[in-house]
Amino acid sequence: MELWYSCVLFLTYLVTVNCIMWNLEPNTQKCLKEELHQNVPVIGEFDVTEAAGQTVNYVVTDSKGHILAKRQDITKGKFSFNTESFDTYEICFSSHVPPNYRGITQEVSLITKHGIETKNYDTYGEAAQLKPIEKELKRLEDLSNAIVQDFAIMRKREEEMRDTNESTNSRVLYFSVFSMCCLLGLATWQVLYLRRYFKAKKLIE
Hints:
By secondary structure, the protein is α+β, with helices and mostly antiparallel strands. It is built from three helices and eight strands.
């Protein structure tokens, strides 16, 4: 029983919610980036302090510049999207102040969730008529599967990095051998050239 409880606590600690808060200066932009895998649901909740005459916009894009979510003149709300591929995704908040208007600093808070963090197990449990312990076990099952998938992806990336390192080492070795051959050839040619030159000048026999 104690072992099962410890496992539950350990898996619970692995589920984290990203929450960040910062001050957005007038006519500036703040961007946050995160690397996500393919087909990962992402939801976000933001809150921006209001300031008369000022507007704040946000836009979510991938590394190719595709817009996944966008909204102008925001104060409080949510956004959601699904990742199309393994990529780096960026969300930018920008402040806009009219000309000849003295802007003030606005406070922005952002909470993001992705993967199994986005699932509402209360709603799922009611729909499937699950008991509280069954609902918790379902959540832990999904969390375990997500951890296994993350480890599999990490192992695959480690293999790719190892292959890249081995390929780079081989290329460096071949380049070093080629450089040594070039240097030896150049040194031999230089010695022969100087020998012919000195013979032509009758400086040596």
